[in-house]
Design goal:
This protein is mainly alpha-helical and about 475 residues long. It has helices spanning about 5-20, 25-40, 45-65, 70-105, 125-140, 150-160, 170-175, 185-220, 225-255, 275-280, 285-295, 305-325, 325-345, 345-355, 365-385, 390-400, 410-415, 420-435, 445-450, 450-470. It has 2 domains: about 5-185, no CATH class; about 190-480, no CATH class. It has 20 helices and no strands.
């Protein structure tokens, strides 16, 4: 069941009405049943895999809670780690590694007979595995007591607004909210609906429109060169942002209507002034997960200089691989690690250059230049993220700089007429303009503080834009569903 589908538009209000009609003690049951139904709409069988992960972490956490002996607690944590990572490896990475070994063996004319697994990647597996695993680690660290209510813990893992693509919630933040008595709050409902509408706008008006052109160019990298390829790369930067942040907005808005607060996942990332700042604004729930459960345990920046650089590279490489079993994601993560290490190494030189040219006296110009450079570094890395293979990625980079005919006809050839181009450009600029006023709060919160006439005028305008310019003929899955 896609967020951008009629089914979800009917599903959400049905759940909300039943939720607030039921007594508090039965509400978790409704949300758990609704979440299981929501997940089974993709493939019924994989609910059993999800249930297996839940049962393992539920009992492991209780066992850790019952003993103070560190060695035993480590064993229980290891059970959780091995089982969760094992599930993820089997379904997501086994075939990739198997094919890589087969290619190496074939290169040396050596027989390799390990068969591939014919398994479909479960929707949202990387997200719910990380969420469940973080709970086990938090219990091991003593940051939270083990949840004794199996149903409440299961709801924490399968809660439908954020089940398949995040935000990846922490047990310390989300679990206690399921025990709070929620009253119907019109103000929260309005904020939630506004955020959902904003998410729909970004997804069906911008992301799905840009996808038409991006998919044509990136799926046929040898057919286009010059400006059309560069345009497709710019478009993909906004497609993936609007697609993923749009999903997060709908998820956060849906939960807010039900009285639950999910963590903010995006904070205007393309206005970042450095790569480090970009990762404080982009997919925040994942970047903070890696910070707390991998980077800091590795030693973070409290180690020697070169070990610190090693830690950064390891974290970003694993972050890349988390996104997908492909060498393109490996290189994408490695590239961001290199960006970050390079920014640390060149910090002194860049400050001297800034002082030499007098940029310190022109803070606005300096800020704009830093945003421009950061955006284009991120833009270059998106080529590897979107390309279907490393070969395609390098061909796209080569073709960007190729001298070729660039005319409006090529937009039409790629299935993207001048009207579509104008709508795309207008809606991107509209989104960026709104982002400029979202400096300290979200759009939904900002609008909810305005007078009644202004609130409803904004919402009606957003609905009209969605209905008039939305791509509804063939609803597209959210990009991050594949992860």
């Amino acid at each position: 069941m896609l967020f951008n589908s009629i089914q979800y538009i009917l599903f959400l209000p049905t759940v909300v009405i039943l939720y607030f009609a039921l007594p508090q003690r039965y509400r978790w049951t409704l949300l758990l049943a609704a979440s299981c139904y929501f997940y089974m709409c993709w493939k019924v069988e994989y609910i059993f895999l999800l249930a297996g992960s839940i049962m393992i972490d539920y009992y492991v956490a209780i066992c850790m809670d019952r003993t103070e002996i560190k060695s035993r607690r480590r064993i229980y944590l290891l059970i959780s780690l091995v089982s969760n990572v094992g599930i993820l490896f089997t379904f997501k990475y086994f075939n990739f590694l198997n094919d890589s070994f087969r290619a190496i063996f074939n290169h040396f004319n050596i027989f390799y007979g390990v068969p591939a697994f014919n398994l479909l990647l479960p929707v949202g597996i990387s997200f719910y595995i990380f969420q469940s695993l973080s709970y086990s680690i938090d219990v091991y660290r003593g940051q939270i007591k083990a949840e004794r209510h199996l149903g409440i813990f299961a709801l924490y893992v399968v809660y439908f607004p954020q089940l398949v693509a995040g935000p990846i919630e922490r047990s310390t933040h989300l679990l206690p909210q399921f025990r709070l008595k929620q009253k119907f709050d019109f103000h929260r409902v309005y904020e939630g609906l506004t955020q959902i509408l904003w998410g729909f706008f970004k997804k069906v008006v911008i992301a799905d429109r840009l996808a038409v052109y991006v998919n044509e160019v990136y799926n046929n990298p040898g057919s286009y060169a010059g400006a059309p390829v560069l345009l497709a790369t710019y478009f993909f930067a906004f497609q993936i942002y609007c697609d993923f942040s749009g999903y997060s907005d709908i998820a956060i808005g849906s939960a807010r209507i039900l009285g639950h607060d999910l963590m903010t996942n995006f904070k205007r990332p393309y206005f970042s002034k450095s790569i480090a700042e970009f990762w404080q604004r982009w997919h925040i729930s994942l970047s903070t997960w890696f910070r707390d459960y991998l980077y800091i345990p590795l030693g973070g920046n409290r180690v020697g200089k070169w070990r610190w650089y090693y830690n950064l590279l390891i974290v970003f490489i694993i972050s890349g691989i988390w996104h997908g079993a492909n060498w393109t994601f490996f290189l994408w993560g490695f590239l961001h690690g290199i960006y970050l290490v390079s920014s640390i190494l060149t910090n002194g030189i860049r400050q001297k250059i800034s002082h030499l040219f007098g940029f310190e006296a022109l803070p606005l110009l300096q800020k704009c230049m830093r945003i421009f450079v950061t955006f284009h570094l991120v833009l270059f890395s998106w080529i590897f993220f979107r390309a279907n293979s490393l070969g395609d990625a390098f061909l796209i980079i080569k073709n960007i700089f190729a001298i070729a005919e660039s005319s409006p006809v090529l937009l039409i050839d790629a299935g993207f007429g001048l009207i579509e181009f104008s709508i795309a450009l207008f809606t991107i600029m509209l989104m960026l303009s709104i982002h400029l006023i979202e400096r300290r709060t979200t759009l939904a919160t900002l609008i909810s503080q305005k007078p009644l006439w202004m609130r409803w005028t904004f919402n009606y305008a957003l609905i009209l834009l969605i209905l008039n310019f939305g791509m509804f003929h063939n609803p597209a899955e959210f990009i991050y569903f594949q992860f």
